[in-house]
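yo

u said u wanted the structure for the complex thing, so here. seqs first:
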Amino acid sequence: MTDGHILEDKSHFHGVWVFLEGRAGQLRDVSTQLIGEGRRLADLRGTPLTGILPGHDVDALAREAIGYGLDRVIVVDDPILEIYRSRPFAEVMAQLIRRQKPEIVLFGASKNGRDLGGRLHAILETGLAADCVKFDIDPEGNLDMIRPSFGGKSLAHILCKKHRPQMASVRRNVFVAPPHNPDRRGEILHERVELSPEDVDATLLEFDEFTKEGGLRPEEADIVVSGGYGLGDPKNFQLLQALADRLGGAIAASRKAVDSGWVPKTLQVGQTGMTVRPKLYIAVGISGAVQHLAGMQESDKIVVINIDPKAPLFEIADYGIVGDLFEVVPELIRQLDALKGGEVGAQPTLPAEVR
Amino acid sequence: MSVPASGMRPMRIIVCIKQVPKAQELQVDPVTQTLKRVGVPSEINPPDANALEIALTLKDRHAAEVVVLSMGPTSFDESLERAIAMGADRSVLLTDRILGGSDTVPTAYALSETIQKIGGYDLILTGEETTDASTGHVGPGIAGHLALPQITYVSEVQIVDGAVRARRTEDGTEWWQTKMPSLCTVNFGCNKPRSPTLTGKIRVKRGGVIAHWSCADVGIDPKKVGLFNSPTIVAKVDTIRLPPRAGRMFSGDARESVRALLDALIRDRVIVP
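structre next:
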């Protein structure tokens, strides 16, 4: 079921592709972020940048995507592709790649992006690097795919020298989306891929969309207040929520807190959770396993609150408070309320008497 | 293993597991900035343990045989024995020097060939990713090789009238249905893997629960596995030098500490009073 070929002459492969994911008539932000990085790589290689958009009735989305910096979009339109399904999407991508031979294909490391990339790389028998955080072009013209290795404390440079295309996935918020230019011109090409009803090998029975009720998502927040095992009890996340509310931020959690069943997995920061890079990350009662660091170490400012002065997370803190979080956090809330309450002016330094 | 009254053959579930260094034990040496790996104990890759728990839950409800499959050195027997002690029926370790250095393409290929050699499977389960390589590519890669339906990132699997139903989360909760045979990858932390039982431990002690297969035993093409037949190579590894942080520590009276912290954050213009 795989291509089975060993190597093709790689000089036949040209162009940078970005797999575009739509959701509810919008491009996923990981897709717009990828377009920005794809543009840079395409310019370095002197080749066009193409977005690939399998879907149904998605021409408007294709036009919008061009505004982020694409030269063209290949649309494969089929009612079968209206929602993401592994087999037909992998079939479409495999056929397009065999026909057009791109040298680089980038995917968002969303669950669907990883689902697709994983299946596709085995079918095409080519290299795929997961969760890249940086790309370069090496002196031989190969894509240098740079990803965190174990726990994110080192960076591995992955090369795919003999196989094409070179494929990589990138998590959300690793790259910054370029500004949208509605006047940018680009081509929209419609390609046909024969799909049969047998390609629909899975049926979506039920779908309950997550609502925004849960408040601001950590990936979208400028300030993230994250709790760990030190909270001791799920109800103490209310304390963090109170702090996050004062700061206009979102709450998140360490794997251990999630593992203990205190908060849903959708709030988990770290290697098997999400990556965040807010302006301010406040870690409360998190000791700082390397897997946690992988998800937050690029935050602009890191504040660590922990009773244990030896907690490893202090090593990467801008500011640390060694103390009991049940004293420190309420005090933080009190002083923030005092600031908001106008008892203090907008001076850069706080007066001595803050209550 | 119970045989259903109808005389139908019991369902066969293959769970792919990997043995990894225990994640919680890993710490970074603050001086050398490298991982302290020496003396770190091993465990079943935690998402794979969640996959095994789903298989064993299915076995509790339906007539099923649970076969655990791994690929690696014979030190992986430790994890396979644990899986048997937890309730799996038997295990296969694909172990061969020529597999060393395989990336996800040969790994998915070699596991697919081994799964075909085991044969008669209805459901294949893997963890969402491993905690040591964390690619998440091998599960979908196996499904691609074997041209099976795949449902990734599931937290619950049910067998209803011979079909697989799985709960997945992406932008919400999704319930997918597919036919068998098929493959699901299982979310880390979606359940609490059971502990080994006394009967399970006795089965391990009696022996004969792990089959060691070489590439030749399975019929794996040596030209398609190992470091030199992997599309990707790790060209080099850089230690991350994190941007210097202020590293200012406050301790003692909470009120004083918090005041000093807010003072600093306001000065840095991170928060606006």
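The helical segments of chain A are 29-45, 59-66, 86-100, 111-124, 237-247, 255-259, 290-296, 325-340. Residues 29-45 of chain A form the longest helix (17 residues).
cya
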